[in-house]
Amino acid sequence: REVYCGDFYPLTGWSLAEEDMAAWQYSRPDLGKAVVQVFRRSKAETPSEGYRIRPKGLDPKASYTVTDVDMPSQSSQISGDVLMREGLEVSFPQKPQSALFLLQKK
């Protein structure tokens, strides 16, 4: 909850269209934490290679533990630079569906 009182970054354009994906990020740089929320709406198509979300406002020189809350045992370590340049790959086998990622600076 503490990240919701921090910085807010929209990661997609704003839209109410059911064909569009929606994603945003809450960050607390002072705590080294961020939460990324991604939503596949009921008519949104996902590219076959997956959907890329690029977090913002991270420390490019730091390493982050990235955890998908639906698969917490599969956490990974990724640099802030790579996260902001290459992004997180998100795949959604169903419509609608959502994903929640926790980012913790190491």
Task: Provide tags for this entry.
106 residues; single chain; 8 strands; two-stranded antiparallel sheet; 42% strand; Immunoglobulin-like; mainly beta; globular; 6-stranded antiparallel β-sheet
Describe the protein's architecture and organization.
This protein has 106 residues and is mainly beta. The protein has a single domain (2-105), classed as Sandwich (Immunoglobulin-like), CATH 2.60.40.1180. Helices cover 7% and strands 42% of the residues. It is built from one helix and eight strands. Strand 5 and strand 6 (76-79) form a beta hairpin. The protein starts with 6 loop residues before the first strand and ends with a strand.
Q: Structural class of the helices, strands and pairings? A: mainly beta
Estimated radius of gyration:
13 Å
Strand segment tally:
8
CATH homologous superfamily?
Answer: Golgi alpha-mannosidase II
Distance between the ends: 19 Å
- CATH architecture type: Sandwich
Kindly report the CATH topology: Immunoglobulin-like
Helix content: under 10%
Sheet with the most strands: spatial strand order: 1-2-3-8-5-6
Unreliable residue stretches: none
* Structure annotation, total helices: 1
CATH domain class name = Mainly Beta
Envelope shape: globular
Integer count of domains: 1
Report the average pLDDT across residues: 92
Q: For the report, how would you describe the main beta sheet? A: 6 strands, antiparallel
Order of helices and strands: EEEEEEHEE
Strand content: 35-45%
